[in-house]
Amino acid sequence: MTIRTMWMPGLWTACLLAMSASCFGQTKTVDTQQRAENLSGSVYSEDAGGARQAMSDVIVAECTRGFKSCMMMSKTDEQGRFSISSEQNTRVHYLQFLSPGFSESQVTVTLAKNGGKLSVRLVSNI
């Protein structure tokens, strides 16, 4: 066995570890704030031309202040719509939206009578 064949498996392992570590560092979180009447709305993405595409099966989680701890509450339907009932008795809510291939979105929602519907845009990681 030559030194080259003994060294190659170690090199491959090192390269794979380096690549996986760099992939994990590329996720980005998008933080936004919105005013809304209630905790319902829609989730969408945009194509290269700016056209909106409804996103189904997006996980919607309600979090504690600062997004420290989150619990899944719902998923979006085929038209990208969601509605959650919060057990938190407060005007400010912290919602997290997750979908594979898209950046995590954290939305701070302030409930207000003159607020509209929530509209959340997810950004592709690609």
What does this structure look like?
The protein is of the alpha+beta class. It has one domain (29-121): Carboxypeptidase-like, regulatory domain (Immunoglobulin-like, Sandwich). The protein has one helix at 3-24, and strands spanning 29-46, 52-54, 59-63, 70-75, 81-83, 92-98, 104-111, 116-121. Strands 1, 2, 3, 4, 5, 6, 7 and 8 form an 8-stranded mixed β-sheet that branches. A hairpin with a 6-residue loop joins strand 3 and strand 4 (70-75).
Could you tell me how far the N terminus lies from the C terminus, measured between alpha carbons in angstroms?
42 Å
CATH topology value:
Immunoglobulin-like
The unreliable regions are 3-8, 11-25
Give the helices and strands as they follow along the chain. Answer: HEEEEEEEE
Please state roughly what percent of the residues sit in beta strands, choosing from under 5%, 5-15%, 15-25%, 25-35%, 35-45% or over 45%: 35-45%
CATH A-level architecture: Sandwich
CATH class: Mainly Beta
What gyration radius follows from the Cα positions, in whole Å? 20 Å
- Helices and strands: which structural class? alpha+beta
Count of DSSP helices? 1
Number of strands: 8
Largest sheet, in brief, is:
8 strands, mixed
What percent of residues adopt helix (DSSP H or I)? 10-25%
Mean pLDDT value: 84
* Rough outline: globular
Count of all domains: 1
